[in-house]
Amino acid sequence: MLKFMKNKILIPLLIVGGLAAFFSFKYTTAKDRSSDDRRILVIETVMRTIQEGHYSPKSLDDTFSSRVYRRCVSNFDPEKIYFTQQDVNKLKAYEFSIDDEIRNNSIEFFDTLDAIFLRRINNDTVYYQQILQKPFTFTSNEEIQLNPDKDNYASDDAAKMEKWRQHIKFQVLVKYVDLKKEQEKKKENKDSVNAQYKTDAELEAKAREDVKKSYVRWFKFLNKRKDNDRFTFYVNSIAETEDPHTSYFPPVDKKNFDEMMSGTFYGIGAQLSPENDKVTVLSIITGSPSWKQGELKAGDEITKVAQFGKEPVDIKGYELDDVVKMIRGDNGTKVSLTVKKPDGSVKVITITRGVVEREETFAKSAIIKSKDGPVGYIYLPEFYGDFNHTSGRTCSADIAIEVKKLKDAGVNGIILDLRNNGGGSLGDVVDMAGLFVGTGPIVQVKSNHSSPSVLASHPDSILYRGPMAIMVNEGSASASEILAAALQDYKRAIIVGAMTYGKGTVQKMADLDAMVSPMNHLRLQNDTTGGQDASLGSLKLTMQKFYRVNGGSTQLKGVTPDITIPDRYDSYDDDELGERNQKAALPWDEIPAANYKQVNSIGNVKQLAELSQSRISANPTFTLIKENSEYMKKKKDNNKVPLNEVKYREYQDELNATSKKLEELQKKALTLDMTNAPADMNRINLDSASITKNKEWLKNLSKDIYISETVNIINDMPKSGMKVNMGTGMTY
Length: 732
Fold this sequence. Notes:
Strand order of the largest sheet: 20-17-16-13-12-11-22
Number of helices: 22
CATH class of the largest domain: Alpha Beta
CATH architecture of the largest domain: Alpha-Beta Complex
Number of strands: 22
CATH topology of the largest domain: 2-enoyl-CoA Hydratase, Chain A, domain 1
Radius of gyration: 28 Å
């Protein structure tokens, strides 16, 4: 999603000034608030920020109230397993009064909802323990409905107990069948002549024990959630009623959001894993402080954490997230870990925290050796940008580096893979498009009740002028759609894949503290009840919509590829995927086109599509994908799953049949010859972990039939007489 915009694309100053002035007036005269009124202050501030700054704020009326009510109940119990119909009937009394509560500074609905939810969680803890005490048999013709939209709430406590029994029985059945299949496979392969095999009763008991451990962890998690965590859930149910991308961030969540967007954080660079209530080191990130210090290794168990110079804290029983928070900290500070090595020895390791970069966040490239010459491939998982540090990494700068590497390697064309890229920094989209089209409008942005503004690129020169394809799918959203749409409108690149997500809105982070008067700031600073942060947090607010340079919006409709490749979701209804599946989504519309001039004259898109279609039709893997999508469309209306072992295995075999066929076809498929750009080898050869990770990445790419067909399309461009006139007289 377009999670945030680059600092250079700011909220219009008049809007910020107006909001700040409004809130200053509002709260200067407000009554004194105790720490217990903090939640009311959060809701007031969030709602006023929405009403004054949202692109299309909803009216605060009974319709709004009903939407919030339905979303809250669904968000707290999406599977319809915690609440009974009696609970829902009690909550329904608030369906048309939440708007009145907001006006009257009341949170009665939340308090009622929260109390019911906590009571049910306590009851359900007893339910699952009782149910799992007795063995299950899987011989009846019982079925379970797994689609909550087609299921009802339990009528009362007795019916709820029965619903829990069915859900738990299903999970035990799944585990039992898996264990049984593993044992059957061992018998077939004769892994061990003297192997001791379990009876069906023993396998069922093992399955129940494993499921019980999962429930213990889950209810431990639920019971550790603080009141403020559930309140945040409630506030977000209100915010998301405006549109799917407006959401509330408490201070800690805002920090996590910034780290996710930048791809960097301050810590030690160890990836941790919870195993049997232990915290073990899964891997060490290359180049991180742990990697440089050298003593912490994969397989080490962390038993205690100490801030440097302070008493260590025994972390036994701690949630992994809490352990991570203890280990992370400010740049340059030290943390001491007591670790148990695989050989049983115990050691205290002190590491100085520093910048950790998540490599999987950043752009990277490879070279595909095709029969018609090398083709460059660039993978961009998200449009990242460090909004808190001017020297931080940005995806536009990184893409420029990758393009230069590929040009130096002499590639004949470049593929930019934006599949499942949910978006990110709008400013980087504009800069990135400029690398390929030069100076000109890239996207239009419109606020409510204002004329559209054009965001244009101004590069020193065009970085790359050769054949280019952009890969997209239903997971390509927001910033990905802007880039794909711009290069499609300019006729600069061929868009390949499936219709994109359809998110055409722009969000900005609004600091809620900036909207509160000095008097209430002081009260917030003095309010440290429960050790909570004094800050109110931030609101990610939908303030604008963006439009293509041709005037059309990507909202709801997304970007339609020039060349469509069969996708596993092709046969699903349009309203099941993407933004169009979101009830609160803003509508599609269009505005006048910007003044732009196409840089290419791609007159043979139809011919390229025909060549591609002939290959796809002859490819058994794509044929099977199409058949499977049609099969899944038929199956989706029947969401009942048998709780009979024989019938469940038949059901599972039917679902897995296509996957097995696809695996067999992929084994026989031609493997792409993938390699790295010479400029990357020093970075890759830093250590064995980097070498292994790179090999796995290239191996996975080499079997990707979608990349393979896109390489064919790149190679078709010059063969079909395509002329790429970039204003330099060059032809490819």
